[in-house]
Write a structure and sequence with these properties.
single chain; 8 strands; 6-stranded mixed sheet; Nuclear Transport Factor 2, Chain: A; two-stranded antiparallel sheet; about 190 residues; about 35% helix
Length: about 190
C-alpha cells in the first residue's frame, strides 16, 4: 500500500485542475467572440456614417470620454469628446453633399479596420488652408483603425493620402528638379 501524500505536493493536481476549469469557464465562447466581432463591425460602420450625418449624439455614444482620434496625414491627435466632435463634424463647415461610403470592414474582438471612400463638394473656405470656395468635388480613399474597450471606441486613427485633395481643389505640387504635378482640366 502506498502512503498518502502530504506536505507541499498534496492536492497540487487537484488545484491545477480547478484553475484550468475556472479559466476555461471564464474564456469567451465562440458565440461571445462572434458577437464581439459583429459589434466591432457595427461600431466601425456607424462611426464612418457619422462623417456624413454629423450626428453629434451618435458620435458621443460611440466614444469613451477619454478617447483619442488621430488624424495621421495632418499629424494631429484629438483628445476627448469635444475635440473628436470638432474633427468629425468640421467637414460640414466647408463641404456640402458630404458622403462616406464604407467598403470592407475587417472586424476583430477588440476593434476593426474600415476601408472607405469620402466625397464632398467644397463650397465654403477651408479655414486658413483654402480661403476661397472652389465648388469642386473631392473624392478620397482612406482607412480608419478603431480600437474598442467594452464596446465603445477608445482610439481611432485615420490614414489617407491628402495629395489628391489638394490636386482636386486646383492645387499643384512642385517637386525638386522642376517637376510639377497637377490635374489636367482643373484650373
Amino acid at each position: 500500500m502506498r502512503p498518502a501524500t502530504t506536505g507541499r505536493g498534496a492536492g497540487t493536481g487537484f488545484l491545477v485542475a480547478c484553475i484550468v476549469t475556472a479559466l476555461a469557464a471564464c474564456a469567451p465562447s465562440d458565440a461571445d467572440r462572434t458577437a464581439a466581432t459583429n459589434r466591432s463591425e457595427l461600431v466601425a460602420r456607424t462611426l464612418m456614417s457619422t462623417w456624413s450625418s454629423a450626428d453629434t449624439a451618435l458620435i458621443l455614444d460611440l466614444f469613451w470620454p477619454e478617447a483619442t482620434y488621430e488624424d495621421y496625414p495632418n499629424q494631429v491627435t484629438y483628445q476627448g469628446l469635444e475635440e473628436i466632435l470638432g474633427y468629425i463634424t468640421q467637414v460640414h463647415e466647408w463641404g456640402d453633399d458630404v458622403y462616406m461610403s464604407v467598403g470592407r470592414v475587417h472586424p476583430a474582438e477588440s476593434g476593426a479596420v474600415a476601408e472607405w471612400v469620402f466625397s464632398a463638394v467644397q463650397n465654403r473656405p477651408m479655414g486658413d488652408r483654402l480661403p476661397v470656395a472652389t465648388g469642386r468635388e473631392v473624392v478620397l480613399n482612406g482607412v480608419t483603425i478603431i480600437e474598442l474597450r467594452d464596446g465603445r471606441i477608445i482610439r481611432a486613427a485615420d490614414y489617407i493620402d491628402t495629395a489628391p485633395l489638394l490636386l482636386q481643389l486646383g492645387g499643384r505640387i512642385e517637386l525638386p528638379g522642376g517637376v510639377v504635378i497637377e490635374l489636367e482640366g482643373v484650373r
